[in-house]
């Protein structure tokens, strides 16, 4: 099993543990803010399960029905994450509204706050692992989970501080205000995840820094060709697709043109992980900048 898949499975277990701790903290205190924190952890469990499924599907090899593979499955997982985050925010807003109409007291017990703090520490450590692995493996599913978990850590820390202040000040509606702020934070997180996921589904190009590395490698390895032009890139999960036109002298043997293409492909595979290169070879009459062997 790949490292990313193992991490996704561990993520499910950790999410369940954190959910149990946060719900226990809510039961001990009756705080709406801590309830909203626990509700966000339910979303974490759902998104962790979605990430496991997406990673398994995306790892399937290409076949006749999907010749470019299943890598985009991770973007669908990230979209599900975004939608669930938004639903959680709406649910919290509902609890805040009902609580404002019918205020009720809560007990800021040290045990409840300590349990919630322990859950927050666990989330803080684990979100760093998810973000690091998501970037390393270029996994939208793990990266989305990590970013959402980071938002959860920040909001949990704020909730803990606020609940303690509400208990000390005696202003119990501060608990509801904090829950509303948590919901706004969750809503922003959901929008960010959805925006990035839709970009992936729309065949978004690679980042500018990666594109520049690709251009340099092509220019360095295109010796013997006249020009490379019309470079296009797109990302699909961990996969990067690169295609461009390579102009060669009209009298160059096919074997020599093929050797140049092989050299460029090998160089790009060494430069960028999980890249699939498609090169269209053209005669010199197709050159756009005669005599310039660069992009």
Summarize this structure as a short list of keywords or feature phrases:
295 residues, mainly alpha, Alpha-lytic protease prodomain-like, Alpha-Beta Plaits, three-stranded mixed beta sheet
Mind explaining what this structure looks like?
- With 295 residues, this protein is mainly alpha-helical.
- It has 2 domains: 3-201, Alpha-lytic protease prodomain-like (Up-down Bundle), CATH 1.20.1510.10; 208-286, Cation efflux protein, cytoplasmic domain (Alpha-Beta Plaits), CATH 3.30.70.
- The protein has 8 helices and 3 strands.
- A hairpin with a 2-residue loop joins strand 1 and strand 2 (239-248).
- The longest helix is centred in the middle third of the chain and has 30 residues, at 140-169.
- 42% of the residues are buried.
- The model has no long low-confidence stretch (mean pLDDT 81).
Total number of helices: 8
The radius of gyration over CA amounts to 25 Å
Structural class: mainly alpha
The biggest beta sheet, please?
A: 3 strands, mixed
Number of strands: 3
Within the largest sheet, what's the order of strands?
1-2-3
Helix content: 55-70%
Order of helices and strands: HHHHHHHEEHE
């Amino acid at each position: 099993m790949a490292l990313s898949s193992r991490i996704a499975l561990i993520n499910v277990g950790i999410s369940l543990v954190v959910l149990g701790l946060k719900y226990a903290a809510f039961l001990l205190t009756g705080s709406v803010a801590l309830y909203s924190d626990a509700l966000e952890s339910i979303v974490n469990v759902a998104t962790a399960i979605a990430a496991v499924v997406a990673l398994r599907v995306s790892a399937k090899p290409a076949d006749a029905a999907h010749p470019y593979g299943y890598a985009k499955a991770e973007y669908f997982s990230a979209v599900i994450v975004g939608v669930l985050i938004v639903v959680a925010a709406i649910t919290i807003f509902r609890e805040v509204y009902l609580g404002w109409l019918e205020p009720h007291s809560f007990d800021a017990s040290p045990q409840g706050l300590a349990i919630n703090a322990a859950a927050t520490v666990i989330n803080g450590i684990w979100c760093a692992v998810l973000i690091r692995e998501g970037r390393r493996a270029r996994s939208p599913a793990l990266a989305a989970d990590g970013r959402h978990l980071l938002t959860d850590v920040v909001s949990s820390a704020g909730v803990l501080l606020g609940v303690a202040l509400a208990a000390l000040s005696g202003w119990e509606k501060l608990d509801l205000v904090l829950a509303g702020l948590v919901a706004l934070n969750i809503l922003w997180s959901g929008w960010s995840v959805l925006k990035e996921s839709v970009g992936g589904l729309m065949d978004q190009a690679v980042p500018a820094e990666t594109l520049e590395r690709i251009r340099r490698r092509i220019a360095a390895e295109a010796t013997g060709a006249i020009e490379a032009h019309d470079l296009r890139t797109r990302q699909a999960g961990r996969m990067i697709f690169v295609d461009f036109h390579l102009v060669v002298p009209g009298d160059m043997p096919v074997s020599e043109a093929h050797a140049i293409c092989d050299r460029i492909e090998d160089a790009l595979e060494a430069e960028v992980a999980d890249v699939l290169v498609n090169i269209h070879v053209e005669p010199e009459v197709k050159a756009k900048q005669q005599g310039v062997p660069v992009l």
